[in-house]
Amino acid sequence: MIKLHNIEKVYRTDTIETLALNGISLDIQKGEFLSVMGPSGCGKSTLLNIMGLLDEPSSGDISIAGEKIDRMSDQQLAHFRNKRLGFIFQSYHLINDLHVLDNVELPLLYRKVSAKERRRLATQALEKVGLSNRLKHFPTQLSGGQKQRVAIARAIVGEPEIILADEPTGNLDSAMGNEIMDILLQLNSRDKTTIVMVTHDEVMAKKTHRLVRLFDGTQVQ
Amino acid sequence: MLKNYFKIAIAILNRRKFFTFVSLFGISFTLATLLVLTAFIEKIVNDDYPDRKRARSLYLTGIEENGPQSMVSSSLSLSYINRYLKTMKTPVDVGYYTARVGTNTYHAGKKIGIAFRYVNGSFWNILDFDFLEGKPFDAQQVSNREKVTVITEDLRRQYFGEDVQAVGQLIEADNQQFRVAGVVKNVPGTTYFFSGDMYIPYTVANESETGQSYHGEYNAILLGASAHDLPAMQTEYNNVVGRLKPSDKSYDKVLSYADYYSDAYLRTGNMSKPLKRWVYSVIGGFVFLLLFLPSVNLVNINLTRIMERSSEIAVRKAFGASSNTLVYQFVVENIILTLLGGVVGCLLAVVMLYIFNQAAILPHVTLHLNPVVLVIGLITCLVFGLVSGVYPAWRMSRLAIVKALKA
After folding, report:
1. Hey, which of A89, B103, B258, B338 would disulfide with B237, CB 3.0 to 4.6 Å?
2. Helix B371-397 × helix B323-359 angle, to 10°
3. pLDDT, one tens digit for every residue, chain A (221 residues)
4. CA distance A212 to chain B (A)
5. pLDDT tens-digit profile of B39-95?
6. CATH of segment(s) A2-94+160-219
7. How far apart are the first and last CA of chain A?
8. Could you tell me how many CB contacts below 8 A there are between chain A and chain B?
9. Residue A102 is nearest to which of B7, B12, B319, comparing CB atoms?
């Protein structure tokens, strides 16, 4: 589903060159649930951002669902992300000025979907994460766990084949973290959604199919 | 999609109330000023009372003689009018009148300031004053040097009192008694060619109608049979002036023009340096500054808002918004903001015009906000929205997603 070949990412300033990723090659199968672990600053999030087409590698090849992701225009990349990818962030990144329902509808705004259909799909996604009673709440009125569920609903509303989750349980207590993990596991087993999750939590990582460890930008497991 | 943008725009306006106030104040105050300015210019340009035959008229506001060391500029003499204007072939009538002359009169223990003009009989044929009572004096009365006058309703009220018939009564001005022949509706102060309180036959002034001097006290209007005659009238007058010899050896050039109304309005004082270009430049510069400064302010505010919204921008990009879509969103939001400012600006303009009219800052001038001015206002708002929204939107759309997520 996701093929990375010899990915390198170098951050350059006027004086310093930092190698964030060093020759990473990965082959993630359709329906696989993969977790990425490693100490802070080892390149986990950079790797996830590159897989999510939010950042470009300095060198190396990426293909997702059989499509080579090089030389895509801004418009094509936007379309690809919209159709194929869903994101869950550690700090949720919900739009506080919009209701929960409007937040979840967001990916559908960039597709040709009627307002009525958007509303139906967003409500359905919120039902899946157990938040159908919070449609008209604002994010600031929700707990951390509820916010992350809204973020998951937003990630799955467009039925993407791949979900990329950057420490989705990092800001939550263990009970809330487990609830979120259960939702992700369910998505993976029921809908066969491919999930790549960055985490610091060994317990959570052990629940996934495969674990990749990074150290100083290099894959060590 | 638009509904979503609208929700966001309104939410952002609510979120930062001080920024919103500054933005809206900038837009609305600017727009209100523009609307009042436009209403004022429109009043000057389009208000044609009593000058309703403006399309058929040319205006002569003076004559100038220039030499290497000296120059003289003035209005026209009666002899000049008799020799050179009344003998022209293309005009069907020639009206002439002096500038406003100020005097004080005392009536019933009350001091009344009066601005009067000396005019000829044709003045009343060329200009369409609205008579509230009586009628104008005619050419025969002018020729007979009768001490008759036409006064305005405002002077009637001041001199004779409310709801009093003035025709046939005597009024004193400039130490002379005049019998009132008619009363006309007030002329706005902005129509400064013709405004006044009292109009008197020019023959009463006893100015010589003979002699060789070009210089005197009178302005003139040449009336054509139709608007099509104006170019021919202009050409004929230019030829007349072209043949004039300077009245003194110290001059080598004579300048005088028969102008269309707007040009004549701006040709005051120096004939060789008309105000036209200067006035258009000043108004243009003023309007430019009025539009430019709030636009820069809005651009600045919008750029500041970008950083606040970097997370939202990143999320939208991550979930499929292209840079173009984001530019579109931000411009739409900005247009919503400026249109809101536009509505507030229109209301502010109504209040400003009301205060202006009530305070009677200019005599007999009532300014109105007309539909054309409103449309101009709305178009101005759209231009504001576009100009101040596009650059920040473009900057915003270029934000790298990863950096924006971390900001």
Report:
1. B258
2. 150
3. 889 999 999 988 888 888 889 889 999 999 999 999 998 888 889 999 999 998 889 999 999 988 888 778 888 889 999 999 999 988 889 998 889 999 999 999 888 888 899 999 999 999 988 888 888 899 999 988 899 889 989 998 998 999 999 988 888 788 888 888 888 898 899 888 999 999 988 888 999 999 999 988 888 87
4. 22
5. 887 777 777 789 899 999 999 999 999 999 898 999 999 999 999 999 999 999 999
6. 3.40.50.300
7. 20
8. 72
9. B7
Three-state secondary structure call for residue B274: coil
Q: Which of A44, A79, A85, A93 to mutate to test the interface with B (most CBs of B within 10 A)?
A: A93
Shortest CA distance to B309 belongs to which of A95, A190, A189, A53? Answer: A95
Q: Is B358 exposed, middle or buried (0-12, 13-18, 19+ CB in 10 A)?
A: exposed
Q: Which contacts qualify for B111-114: CB closer than 8 Å, 24 or more apart?
A: B112/B155, B112/B158, B112/B159, B114/B155, B114/B173, B114/B197, B114/B198
* List of chain B residues whose C-beta atoms are within 8 Å of the C-beta of residue A20: none
Q: Do B318 and A52 touch (CB under 8 A)?
A: yes
Q: Supply the pLDDT for residue B368.
A: 78
Three-state SS at A137: coil
| Chain B residue numbers touching A55 (CB-CB < 8 A) | 400-402
Q: 3-class SS at B184?
A: strand
Q: What is the number of residues in chain B?
A: 407
Q: Name every residue whose Cβ is closer than 8 Å to that of residue B255 and which is 6 or more positions away in sequence.
A: B63, B64, B65, B66, B241, B271, B272
Q: Which two tokens stand for residue B396?
A: 């915003």
Q: Which pLDDT does position B274 carry in this prediction? A: 66
Instruction: Inspect the interface and report whether the beta carbons of A97 and B3 lie closer than 8 Å.
Output: no
From the CA of B45, how many Å to the nearest CA of chain A?
49
Which residue reads 């300014």 in tokens? Answer: B367
Q: What is the pTM of this model?
A: 0.65
Q: Which chain A residues touch B317 with a CB distance below 8 Å?
A: 54, 78, 81
CB atoms within 10 A of CB B390: 16
Tokens describing residue A66: 């059989």
- Return the closest-CA partner of residue A88 out of A107, A66, A74: A107
- The Cα–Cα gap between B31 and B336 comes to 15
- A114: exposed, middle or buried (Cβ count in 10 Å: 0-12, 13-18, 19+): exposed
Residue B371: which residues within 8 A CB-CB, separation 6 or more?
none
In the sheet where A162-166 sits, what is the strand order?
Answer: A85-88, A162-166, A194-198, A33-37, A210-215, A218-219
In angstroms, rounded to a whole number, what is the distance separating the alpha carbons of residues B403 and B407? Answer: 6
Distance CA B362, CA B374 (A): 23
Query: Residue B77 in contact with residue B211, Cβ under 8 Å?
Result: yes
Contacts of A109 in chain B (CB under 8 A): 1, 4, 321
